[in-house]
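Entry 14. Two folds queued back to back today. First construct below, sequence then structure tokens.
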Amino acid sequence: MHFAFGVLWVRPVWEVCVRHFRVPRRFAYYAAFEFVLAFSMLYELVEWGLSIALAGPDADAYNGQQGDMWDAQKDMSLALLGAALAVLVLLITRKKLQEPAAL
């Protein structure tokens, strides 16, 4: 799910940056990538906060951690990989669209 979050949010954020905020395309790639990383981190912090607030001493057994103390880092890494792949694909496809057709 976290990998899909990274893959699926890059393009819409890039489009919003370019079309609505008139951000230069090169910076929009970076902004979209950082958006995914930031919101992935925020989600993990909220998940951690809920596990502490609601579970108390049983926080390690909370579904969000799934018994793995490195679950949050793994989830954010998957989002990072998904976002990096999406930015790479977006860069390649945009570059191909800009190249003139060879005769």
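Second construct, same run, same settings:
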Amino acid sequence: MAEARYIVVEGPIGVGKTSLARRLAEVFECQLVEELAETNPFLTRFYEDPPRWALPIQLQFLLRRYRQQLTFTAGDPSRGAVADYLFAKDLIFAEMNLKEDELTLYRELAGLLTEPLRKPDLVIYLEARPDILLRRLRKRNREFERRIAPGYLESLIEAYRRFFHEYVESPLLVVNCSAIDFVEQSSEFADLIREIRGVKQGVQHYIPLGSQ
């Protein structure tokens, strides 16, 4: 029987958010909400010239995510769902990439988006070492990801760490997955499902045996 919870999977690029979200949606027999970041028309241009394209890509992401979340929120609240992004994390990239005046503009626009969005019942934050993420990015060999510099990736990981260190809006499960592929390793995935079902409030940390 499906579990009517709204679960969000988060973490830096290459950590396995979407793969895990898809697997969880199958197990819990619920709706899958995918970000589809690759459809942002500014994505490739941003990695070629970040200062020039940071504001357009950020505003595009903000508006697309907001529209998607509005549609999702207007749906059946009793239906379970798994998403591969947290709407609030948009601020991570804005603070990393925007100049001061651009960030002010971004905050003003974001402040106009006042419709309440559905709050997650659980956020799963996946973390992994920079070298692991870089290796995964190179392996999947997407064109725009080839331009991601190691220094940028390390800064992004640190920004995520700071954000979720202070995150209190929903129960949080922090998962170390540097040495784990939950999609491929069925025993570790089964353990993760048990952890997910056990989280009710606050912050919990889960270090799979293969990561110790």
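Quick look at the second one. The domain at 6-211 is CATH 3.40.50.300 (Rossmann fold). The longest strand covers residues 122-127.
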